[in-house]
Amino acid sequence: MGNGYAPLIGEIRAINMPNGAVEAPAGWLLCDGRTLDLNTTTDYVSLAAVIGFAYGAGYGPDGRPAFKLPNLCDSVAIGVGQAPGSTTNYLLGSSVGSNNVTLTSDQMPSHSHLVSSRTSTTEAGRARVPSLEASPGSSSPPNAYSAATSPIGVFASQTLGATGRGLPHVNTQPVLAVAYYICYEGIYPSI
């Protein structure tokens, strides 16, 4: 790669290619999660020996086991291990998280909805209260106030009814797209 040292097989780098191309430079493969079949080529034997099935296993066209490349096309890399104070231990190749999330009522912050109303007085001095047919937020409520009755009834069910459709929302943090490549030709790493 012209950087003064040979890369290690299995090393992952973010590389900017000329003119925004994503084709892999010689000796490197795009980290796109594809399955590589060792029966069709021997180019990736060393890489398979280094990463094994850490990023998943698959099958080649002949039905024999194959290995997968890491997929950094829609994932963010995180360090291996357990951070101080964390209960999660990230193993090499583990994948967590979701692109879309549907919140449940248990995940929403505790809150309340305040409904307030006041009576008004007509010219005749009769009290008027919010109508049971009135629906807050409607563009043209029937009659927001009606003559008081005894006892005053319950608000219409739409007044504080449930809302929302339970659809998932996008759960993506701000990202910047960069091409990640994994080395398959280089120095075999040793411990």
Architecture overview:
- This protein has a domain at 1-78 and 172-191.
- Helix content is 4%, strand content 17%.
- By secondary structure, the protein is mainly β.
- A hairpin with a 5-residue loop joins strand 4 and strand 5.
- The protein has one helix and eleven strands.
- The chain has a three-stranded antiparallel sheet with strand order 1-11-2, with no helix packed on it. The protein has a three-stranded antiparallel sheet with strand order 3-5-4, with no helix packed on it.
- The protein has one helix at residues 45-51; strands at 12-14, 28-30, 35-36, 57-59, 65-68, 100-101, 120-121, 127-130, 145-147, 169-170, 180-183.
- Residue-averaged pLDDT: 78
Structural class: mainly beta
- Total strand segments: 11
The number of distinct helices, counting runs of at least 4 residues, comes to: 1
Q: Tell the overall outline.
A: elongated
Which strands sit side by side, in order, in the main sheet?
Answer: 1-11-2
Strand content: 15-25%
Please report the distance between the alpha carbons of the first and last residues.
24 Å
* Subunit organisation of the chains: single chain
Q: C-alpha Rg, in Å?
A: 31 Å
Helix content: under 10%
Order of helices and strands: EEEHEEEEEEEE
Give unreliable regions as ranges: none
Major sheet details: 3 strands, antiparallel
